[in-house]
């Protein structure tokens, strides 16, 4: 287990300052399309009450043509701090969308300049903006002018291995008025494969005055500490490590604040969390929520005897009761054989893998 050096603890003891916003945590929950809805964020926040959370990315053009806000943009007035993330390539639509985000309660507006998905990049959004820095700059300027809250950017290190341009790009975003930048240490071409190259994040941090958040491969407390040591970043953002494990942001936050390790949840506690997640998704979105819950449920069902069988069944559930019954049966079995659930903790897989 990495220890928390006094130097790192001292460096991170002050709040994260994003423009005029103070955030009392150096650990952020990333935007994850199809995952970080209000239900998921509520679970993460239970364990990480001070952390910044992000909505799923919202299409600014889509927003321009509809009257009602999409459900993915919904924010609970009690969930703070919260950022609404937008994507697009049109500065005017993004400025308009940012105003709607602020009206909905966003504490910051984040612009997605990292999404690798073809559907997004072929329309000029997401990571394709790394190849269009002038447009990216115009976007940040327009959004900064449009809203009173800090505007932030989330991006990658470049389009391909041969086009790594994060140093110039990040500088331009800062000059355009961005108040924080999150760097995912992979190129667009990498997708989610290969290790994140934290070395680039270190260089961005050394060059910029605004806070720099490191993202990519933060799957554990140990990884977060190494990343903060290696990059000098102002904070870390957790992503896939939280899928089926909404405890991660809180575990890291607690360690950074106290130097002590939070007890990891038992298998039964994780399954109880899965159960609550399923029930809440159903209450929030009805049958669509149950269909969306299938993937979450399979992420939770890991690291205990019979987990593979449970995953196979959970990804087929047709209604909420079916899912709850399946989870309850496994919990009852584990309670009956406590030694198995104890043993399984030793073989529990790391979160998100
Ligand atoms: C299912 C999924 C959905 C994602 N959705 C978004 C998104 O809406 N906005 C965004 O900026 N990044 C999105 N990302 C990227 C993550 O926020 C993060 O940058 C990436 O997963 C790298 O971190 P990791 O290696 O810790 O997973 C998504 C990633 C995944 C796997």
Question: Could you explain the architecture of this structure?
Answer:
The protein is α/β, with parallel strands linked by helices and 353 residues long. 46% of the residues lie in helices and 14% in strands. The chain has helices at residues 6-11, 38-47, 60-65, 91-104, 118-121, 133-146, 166-176, 198-207, 221-231, 248-258, 267-285, 287-300, 307-314, 320-336, 338-346; strands spanning 16-18, 21-23, 27-29, 53-54, 58-59, 82-87, 108-113, 151-158, 180-187, 212-215, 235-238. Strands 3, 4, 5, 6, 7, 8, 9, 10 and 11 form a nine-stranded parallel sheet that branches. It has a two-stranded antiparallel sheet with strand order 1-2. Residues 30-35, 56-57, 85, 112, 114-115, 154, 184, 192, 196, 215-218, 239-241 line the site of flavin mononucleotide.
